[in-house]
Design a protein that fits this description.
By secondary structure, the chain is α/β, with parallel strands linked by helices. It has two domains: 3-72, no CATH class; 92-275, Uracil-DNA Glycosylase, subunit E, CATH 3.40.470. It is 42% helix and 13% strand. The chain is built from twelve helices and nine strands. The chain has helices spanning 3-16, 28-33, 63-72, 81-84, 93-100, 135-140, 147-158, 184-201, 211-218, 224-227, 245-250, 255-275, and strands spanning 21-24, 40-42, 59-62, 119-120, 126-130, 167-170, 205-209, 231-234, 237-242. The protein has a six-stranded mixed β-sheet, sandwiched between helices. It has a three-stranded antiparallel β-sheet with strand order 2-1-3. Helix 1 runs antiparallel to helix 3 (63-72). It is globular and about 65 Å long. The protein binds iron/sulfur cluster (SF4).
Length: 276
């Protein structure tokens, strides 16, 4: 799909969600010719302008006017997304990481600092799956390294697991601007890479952190209260859904249910190890 079409689809998705103003950092035609500098950002309370660069060249435009400009531009840029979905010769995580390292298959590729592939034991029994990188992760290219990441490390430690024993990845590999949730279109374009990671790692257990991760995996809407504390099956893998550590930072009352969920997972894992 051409970059122009990707941007149009991104803006239209945002319009459907009620967004009618976006930041746009310079003239569209110029940006389309230098795709790395394209910067689009829905305007909302949670997306503070100070977090967005470059500030001095930022414009706010109506989405209808951006669409109009885009439709009149003559950009011929093409993002070769089909190549990214061919996995011939990609036989392990290292090759997969290399294969997608310059991915521009969704709009997040144009705004990230670093793609966050994932890290941990490539033969892990337990895989931890979050939503998408945040600011710290984007900066360092590593998953769960900010405050929520430290809490995840502590949660794992509480059930005698270290980060090196598990594999940690996200549904989307690039940071959504302003830490918004990834859009369905972005999840759809990125999830094949996660599927491949799961295929290589072949974990016995998955911990899905937060509803966005759970809904992206299972393709249905949930309420956390209805699904946490149970083991579901995702592609034949026992999967525990629990609160995202970032949610625990906002609401410490959820630490108790997470502790209960993690104890249940540890018990199931111990049973698996005994039978192994
Ligand atoms: S989020 Fe995924 S699909 Fe989008 S650019 Fe990053 S790696 Fe590619």
């Amino acid at each position: 799909m051409s970059l122009k079409k990707q941007i149009l689809s991104y803006i239209q998705l945002n319009q459907d969600a009620g967004v009618n103003l976006m930041f746009f950092d310079e003239k569209i035609e110029k940006k389309l010719k230098r795709k790395k500098e394209i910067f689009l950002q829905p305007q909302s309370e949670s997306n503070k302008i100070e977090k967005i660069k470059p500030l001095d060249s930022l414009n706010i435009k109506e989405t209808d006017s951006i669409i109009n400009d885009l439709q009149n531009t003559s950009s011929k840029l093409v993002v070769n997304s089909m190549e990214l979905y061919k996995f011939e010769g990609i036989t392990d995580l290292i090759l997969l990481n290399k294969h997608i390292s310059n991915c521009q298959n969704c709009i997040l590729g144009t705004t990230r600092t670093n793609l966050v592939f994932g890290e941990g034991n490539p033969n892990a029994d337990i895989m931890v799956i979050g939503e998408a990188p945040g600011a710290d992760e984007d900066e360092q290219g590593l998953p769960f390294v900010g405050r929520a990441g430290k809490l995840l490390t502590d949660i794992l430690k509480a059930i005698n697991l270290s980060r090196n024993e598990v594999y940690i990845a996200n549904i989307c590999k690039c940071r959504p601007p302003g830490n918004r949730k990834p859009l369905i279109d972005e999840i759809d374009r990125c999830e094949k890479f996660l599927h491949k990671q799961i295929e290589f790692i072949q974990p016995q257990f998955i911990i899905a952190l937060g509803l966005t991760a759970a809904e992206a995996l299972f393709k249905q809407s949930y309420k956390m209260g209805d699904i946490r504390g149970k083991l579901l099956e995702y592609r034949g893998i026992k999967t525990m859904i629990t609160y995202h550590p970032a949610a625990l930072l906002r609401n410490p009352n959820w630490k108790r249910p997470v502790w209960d969920d993690m104890k249940l997972l540890r018990n199931m894992y111990d049973e698996y190890l005994l039978d192994k």
